[in-house]
Amino acid sequence: MLFTSYTFLIFFSVLVIVYWRLQGDYRKQNALLLLGSYLFYGWWDVRFLFLLTLSTYIDYATTLMIANGRITASQQARSAAFLVGAGFLCGSCQWGDWDGSAAGLLVVLPDSLTDFWVTLFAVGFVVFFGAVRSLSPKIRRPRRYFLFWSVLTNLTILGLFKYFDFFAENFVLLWQRLFGYAPSEVTVQIALPVGISFYTFLTMSHTIDVYRKKAPATDSLLDQAAFVSFFPLLLSGPIERGARMLPQFQAARRAPSREEIHSSLWLIFWGLYKKLVIADNLSRIVDLVFGPFDLGTLTEAPDDGLRCLVAIYAFAIQIYCDFSGYTDMARGVARLLGFDVMLNFNLPYFALNPSGFWQRWHISLSSWLRDYLYIPLGGNRGGKWATYRNLAITMLLGGLWHGAAWTFVLWGVFHGVILIVYRVFGDVKGGQARLTLKNVARGVLMFHLVCFGWLLFRAHNLDTVGAFAAAIATIGTPSRETFELFREVLFYTWFLFAFQCIQAWTGRLEPLDRWNWFV
């Protein structure tokens, strides 16, 4: 279910009315949020909903063991019943596609071998975790034992579903180059569950924070499950922290004020504008230029390099509006439900250096990588060469987080390199800067470095990267079609440029509360 669909409009309208009728009883509100979140996620494919419940179970059990050193019999029983019920519901049933009829919403039993194997997989996980005796109060284990198994299990699930095909395919290619023949088929088509990277990082960070004694563990499975599956954050984040979000699920929530409703609706409609008006229209321009390279029908550098440059600019704006639009909508929806969700984008293309860019772009991920990867690796405490190494590793894995492809890896490597280069020259400060000619030049340079990174990110292979780079270097003769594309890009983005300049000038991301209501 997407935020931009009419289905979501109906779903959320009903949910928010019922939700605030339950005001004063936050546990009933949490139960409603949990059911709504499972419906929201399961609307896509109910079978992968089991992975979300499994992450919930792992985080719940391990955080209790880390924080309290034990888990009670009633907590074990509740969590086991929760996991077993989820396993059979998600593994042995599927929801039919809604065709407008009541029958389209029925839950049907599996009728294919694929569904049988999914059922077997789900039940196998239930049996495995049900048989683990490490949760027994009679066995005392160090806190780091449960942290280790939580992180290992979450990364295994993420790796299996997101990266198995990638590594299996490259293993086959390497084997062919080394030995001259293809090995037996070792790869299977594994669908990528929606949002798995986001909720996996959320549960991992919560477990680590409980271990560091920076976040609470809860003995309420309901609060835990509602926190992990909170539907506004499932698709595109932000990647929240347990220390911020879990306490909000454990306290009564008041209805939003008139000003909060106004700001919530502003965020939702601003996000819809960025997604539907800007990103979706620019995607047509981007696909028009990148399409022949994606399909393999064109591999050489085109004569019109300006056309390639316009496509890269369009993609830079598209990916920003697509991603930030969704997170704006998520923040607005959460605010209408009484939750405060962190800011995820803060005018990233106004950054003057790579450090500033990552303080503004996908802030929840960059801060996650800083707190749970860069600093544990040593951060900048071991001298300059250790710092460079830690930056390179962090950005490499940050690139891989975005997807299973070599272009994502190279994108991460590229950002690691420019972070290191800027650090070598002492340009590492982010934040606001005065409007001077020098800073304008720094900003333009940084924007084009980011755009080259987006070329790596968008291209399906390195041949496309080489062809685009060669075409841009020579520019060639701009065609009439290129100017038409450029005019179309300006048509869809002029208001974004104007408004973001106002945001940067005023230092306020939501300046409308000081404007006349008509504006």
Element layout with pairings:
Blueprint: H1 6-21, H2 26-42, H3 49-68, H4 73-92, E1 94-95, E2 107-108, H5 113-131, H6 143-179, H7 196-211, H8 221-228, H9 242-249, H10 258-295, H11 305-336, H12 354-358, H13 363-377, H14 384-402, H15 406-424, H16 437-458, H17 462-474, H18 480-506
Antiparallel strand pairs: 1-2
Helix pairs in contact: 1-2, 2-8, 3-4, 3-6, 3-7, 3-8, 4-5, 6-7, 8-9, 10-11, 10-18, 11-16, 11-17, 11-18, 13-14, 14-15, 15-16
Describe the structure.
By secondary structure, this protein is mainly alpha-helical. It contains 18 helices and two strands. It has helices at residues 6-21, 26-42, 49-68, 73-92, 113-131, 143-179, 196-211, 221-228, 242-249, 258-295, 305-336, 354-358, 363-377, 384-402, 406-424, 437-458, 462-474, 480-506; strands at 94-95, 107-108. The chain has a two-stranded antiparallel sheet. Helix 8 (221-228) crosses helix 9 (242-249).
Average pLDDT reading: 82
The helix-and-strand class reads mainly alpha
Order of helices and strands: HHHHEEHHHHHHHHHHHHHH
Tell me the radius of gyration. 24 Å
Strand count, sense and barrel status of the largest sheet are: 2 strands, antiparallel
Number of strands: 2
Low-pLDDT windows of residues: 96-117, 185-189
* Share of residues in helices: 55-70%
What is the multimeric organization of the chains shown?
A: single chain
Shape estimate: globular
- What separation lies between the terminal Cα atoms? 32 Å
Specify the number of helices.
18
